[in-house]
Amino acid sequence: AAGVIQSPRHLIKEKRETATLKCYPIPRHDTVYWYQQGPGQDPQFLISFYEKMQSDKGSIPDRFSAQQFSDYHSELNMSSLELGDSALYFCASSLLSNYNEQFFGPGTRLTVL
Amino acid sequence: QKEVEQDPGPLSVPEGAIVSLNCTYSNSAFQYFMWYRQYSRKGPELLMYTYSSGNKEDGRFTAQVDKSSKYISLFIRDSQPSDSATYLCAMSLGTGNQFYFGTGTSLTVIP
């Protein structure tokens, strides 16, 4: 079965640079969620989208923005990167009608030097 | 204080043992309770979810929710080495609301 696809899988950036992470949800899933997981930490919810509209917002820094496109894929844009942004970034998708079955992608490991 | 508390372990058990994983929470408004399994360098994988109080069984896994005590459990019967992973509990207030995760419990099943 098709799963959530994230790209790139690994990304290395320097401080103050920008990064764009991409997420392709499971086909027919209409809702996308972004999470940040630091080393040894639990996933922290950043933001979610349903039908291209922001549906919920968590602890997402103002330096980050995200959007969902007409094909339901989503991009997380991160600017003025800081060392503390180094983490695993997960995307998850679901049907809004089955919200509690969120399927996670493999994650993008971002390292900020 | 975090919304969801989970003992990080590590927990080490022999193959075939029954494993009990637990989370406590502070927000009585949580309605949905999920358990995820995360292998190293992989994304969390949904194991089960339950709504409100009660038990739910799926194969070797049983999830229990006790809303009066704000306590949830995941039991794994006949544990296998392939069950070695980090287990995360998660909770939400309802449809459209964010998940709140525990910190995860690291489990090792020894052959």
Structure commentary:
The complex is a heterodimer of chains A (113) and B (111). Chain A is mostly beta strands and 113 residues long. Chain A has strands spanning 5-7, 10-13, 19-24, 31-37, 44-50, 53-57, 64-68, 74-78, 87-94, 103-104, 108-112. In chain A, the strands form two sheets. In chain A, strands 2, 4, 5, 6, 9, 10 and 11 form a seven-stranded mixed β-sheet that branches. A four-stranded antiparallel β-sheet of chain A has the order 1-3-8-7, with no helix packed on it. The termini of chain A are far apart. Chain B is an all-beta fold. Chain B is built from no helices and eleven strands. Chain B has strands at 4-6, 11-14, 19-25, 32-38, 45-51, 54-58, 61-66, 71-76, 85-92, 99-101, 105-110. In chain B, the strands form two sheets. In chain B, strands 2, 4, 5, 9, 10 and 11 form a six-stranded mixed β-sheet that branches. Chain B has a five-stranded antiparallel β-sheet with strand order 1-3-8-7-6, with no helix packed on it. The chains are: A mainly beta (113), B mainly beta (111).
Main beta-sheet annotation of chain B? 6 strands, mixed
Radius of gyration of chain B: 13 Å
Q: Class by helix and strand content of chain A? A: mainly beta
Total count of strands of chain B: 11
Low-confidence stretches of chain B: none
The helix/strand order of chain B is EEEEEEEEEEE
Low-confidence runs of chain A (pLDDT<50, min 5 residues)? Answer: none
Global Rg of chain A = 13 Å
What is the distance, rounded to the nearest whole angstrom, between the alpha carbons of the first and last residues of chain B?
A: 37 Å
The number of helical segments of chain B is 0
